[in-house]
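User: What would this chain look like folded?
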Amino acid sequence: MALDIKEVLKELCEVPGPSGFEEEVVLRAKKLVEPYMDETWVDTLGNLMGVRKCGKPGAKKLLIDAHIDEIGFVVTAIEEGFLKFSALGGLDARLLPAAGVTVMTEPVMDGVVCVLPPHILRPEDTEKVTKIDELYIDIGLSQEEAERLIPIGTAGVLASNTRDFGENQICSKALDNRAGFAAILGALELIKNESFDDIDLYVMASVQEEVGMRGAGPGAFAVSPDYCIVVDVGEAKTPDATDYEIPEKMGEGVIVARGPNMNRAFTDMIINIAREKEINHQITVIPGGSSGTNTKEIQISQCGVATAFVAIPIKYVHSANEVVLIDDIESTAKLLGETIKSVKGA
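Assistant: Here's the prediction, encoded as structure tokens.
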């Protein structure tokens, strides 16, 4: 694959873009997707949209979506120069004490979440998880300076250095779901020289997924696609989880999901493509009323959309040190590319 997935991830993951504050990462994503699209734009909610048209009037539409936001926090008060904050999305309180954070001032500021040293804790407190509303962020400023430099409502993210890890892996914050968008770019690279005869291809980097899948529904409503593939991440097995809790594994390829939120015929088509093209893949079942991704929001947009869901296995989801295997992103890109080629001839 000519596209350097690692470099794309490093460019995207280093940019802070929590839910509701995605502007900078959307602009980065727009720059990366523009060479593959006839037109790109940012809609009212902040979703990045792109289209590659076939030129046929009334052509069917295929939309591929990956949310671009990440978990984070927003400053709610300042006390004695320390920041109080609330979560944006599924910020895990277990991981926060002593964690480094980036506050999205101009320029950005480093901070650290306060933590009591272990030798002054009471025995009964050593096994407790401190709630987010009891935590503070230290940014090394006086009350006066903090109030001057950090307006209430300023957002922030977990601090992380995107880095090579192990064998062909990347460790970073925000792989959920910048890895999904990187897979879409990989697919677009693979099909860039393919002709399009009868389908218009749309791409969406949707916003505010982590706070209730808010961007995807309106974005899909505006496009009114006939088909959609949602690309996100899925938890990958580690020794501390059972096979029942997390059956999917890194290194076994793209995850294709079955369940009520996924159109059966479209999903079967994608699985058959994976088998025929010998693309490394694994199948999972999501039986509930919602997959916890954009899939449902797009599935029920307008009069309904034939929607499928594929995921990239990653470890340590919603932490500052998520881990992904580049091979799994590439298998996702290959499956997306082959599916795009198959749908356009349907």
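The chain is about 25% helix and 25% strand. If you want, I can go into more detail on any region.
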